[in-house]
Specification:
Number of domains: 2
Bound molecules: zinc ion
CATH topology of the largest domain: Arc Repressor Mutant, subunit A
Strand order of the largest sheet: 4-3-5
Low-confidence stretches: none
Helix content: 40-55%
CATH architecture of the largest domain: Orthogonal Bundle
CATH superfamily of the largest domain: Winged helix-like DNA-binding domain superfamily/Winged helix DNA-binding domain
Number of helices: 5
Structural class: alpha+beta
Radius of gyration: 18 Å
Distance between the termini: 62 Å
Largest sheet: 3 strands, mixed
Strand content: 15-25%
Shape: flat
Length: about 130
């Protein structure tokens, strides 16, 4: 089953397909403008909301509160550093199986899940160790 999409939604989906990481609504707006596909920021938000409820787009909120949008197919998880903000993708999903079980036991249609790990990256741990020793 395929929902009918507005032109704005199509443009946003096409953009998200070309972008590997998550992108903020503001940046989607700017990217589309750069491609001469001018749509209003309010329309970007409205389209993202519709795509989200359609199970096409997922939102990821960073430690600083910024919301990043991406296509739902990307079942990616990250290690996020609280110090420098670096976001390292991990190439495995530890809850894939659980998702299937939940869908069956609760008859719940799961569009996506989020799972994030927060802490200090290798570089920041090194910097911290240096600071303490001084
Ligand atoms: Zn770091
Ligand atoms: Zn996953």
């Amino acid at each position: 089953m395929r929902a009918i999409r507005t032109r704005s939604q199509e443009r946003i989906l096409n953009l998200l397909k070309t972008i590997k990481q998550g992108i903020s609504a503001q940046d989607i707006y700017v990217e589309l403008r750069n491609r001469n596909q001018t749509i209003g920021l309010a329309t970007v938000y409205r389209s993202l909301e519709a795509l989200k409820l359609d199970g096409m787009v997922q939102v990821r909120t960073l430690a600083n509160g910024e919301a990043l949008y991406g296509l739902v197919q990307q079942d990616k998880h990250h290690l996020t550093c609280l110090q420098c903000g670096v976001s390292i993708p991990i190439n495995q999903c530890p809850v894939h199986e659980l998702e299937h079980q939940l869908q069956n036991t609760h008859k719940f249609k799961v569009f996506y899940h989020t799972l994030e790990f927060f802490g200090l990256c290798n570089q920041c741990q090194t910097n911290q160790a240096v600071e303490i020793s001084h």
